[in-house]
């Protein structure tokens, strides 16, 4: 009787290897499918925001809480008649509001009433408020400024100490040009606020760092530049410093002087 031994181990290893490769390939395919799904752009058509369903809200990027707030508000018999109303009721972010609000469509009588309100308000001189003492609620009175944006303005004001000019509203994330112009017509920095300007030709590193737009590294570069050239003669000259934020030079001038 003869016995023949067959080595199945190599075949088993090859089968396991092939299985592993197939699984790895499948995972890769699944990940590509997932990315493809995420890249799908939901085409938005004009709609009345009063009638957003759960599914519609999800498509628009709203979360469950925001959709529920809308539905609870509508269940009381009230209507949303403006973009500002929509954000106040739902609490959606400025970024999502900016994305979907161009597609809002309200009944003709609402549009007519809003236009009449604008004309009426334009004929009444508005009280100018102090940008440095205005409350969150004051900012929310401006069309286009919701709770999130109003809080962002107040928080930034606290961060920099005080606004020195309306120009600094440019630094508020999510505040577009049109809304900023509305704020400028209503708020201004009080003329009673007196600010001390720092002489850029004598300032020390730690003093320059106190300027909101200048960090430690930039402060060192400014002083190094000053030492090499003996003196800084204009703010435009600072743009020669590689890391200097030239786009913010109009705000930096609010804190410095050249003597």
Automatic annotation (TrEMBL):
<dbReference type="InterPro" id="IPR051675">
    <property type="entry name" value="Endo/Exo/Phosphatase_dom_1"/>
</dbReference>
<dbReference type="Pfam" id="PF12836">
    <property type="entry name" value="HHH_3"/>
</dbReference>
<protein>
    <submittedName>
        <fullName>Competence protein ComEA helix-hairpin-helix repeat region</fullName>
    </submittedName>
</protein>
<dbReference type="GO" id="GO:0015628">
    <property type="term" value="P:protein secretion by the type II secretion system"/>
</dbReference>
<dbReference type="GO" id="GO:0015627">
    <property type="term" value="C:type II protein secretion system complex"/>
</dbReference>
<dbReference type="InterPro" id="IPR010994">
    <property type="entry name" value="RuvA_2-like"/>
</dbReference>
């Amino acid at each position: 009787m003869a016995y023949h031994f067959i080595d199945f181990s190599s075949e088993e290893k090859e089968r396991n290897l092939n299985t592993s490769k197939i699984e790895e390939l499948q995972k890769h395919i699944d990940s590509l499918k997932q990315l493809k799904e995420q890249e799908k752009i939901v085409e938005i058509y004009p709609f009345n925001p009063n009638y957003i369903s759960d599914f519609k809200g999800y498509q628009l990027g709203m979360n469950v809480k925001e959709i529920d707030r809308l539905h609870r508000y509508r269940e009381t018999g009230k209507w949303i008649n403006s973009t500002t109303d929509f954000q106040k009721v739902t609490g959606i972010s400025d970024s999502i509001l900016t994305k979907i609000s161009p597609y809002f469509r309200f009944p003709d009588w609402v549009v007519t009433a809003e236009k009449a309100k604008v004309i009426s308000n334009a004929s009444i001189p508005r009280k100018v408020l102090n940008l440095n003492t205005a409350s969150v609620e004051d900012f929310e009175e401006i069309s286009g400024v919701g709770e999130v944006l109003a809080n962002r303005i107040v928080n930034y004001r606290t961060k920099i100490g005080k606004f020195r000019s309306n120009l600094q509203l440019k630094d508020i994330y999510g505040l577009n040009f049109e809304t900023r112009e509305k704020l400028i017509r209503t708020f201004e920095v009080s003329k009673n606020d007196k600010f001390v300007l720092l002489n850029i030709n004598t300032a020390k590193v730690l003093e320059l760092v106190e300027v909101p737009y200048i960090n430690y590294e930039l402060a060192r570069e400014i002083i190094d530049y000053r030492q090499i050239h003996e003196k800084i003669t204009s703010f435009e000259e600072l743009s020669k410093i590689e890391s200097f934020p030239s786009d913010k030079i109009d705000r930096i001038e609010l804190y410095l002087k050249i003597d």
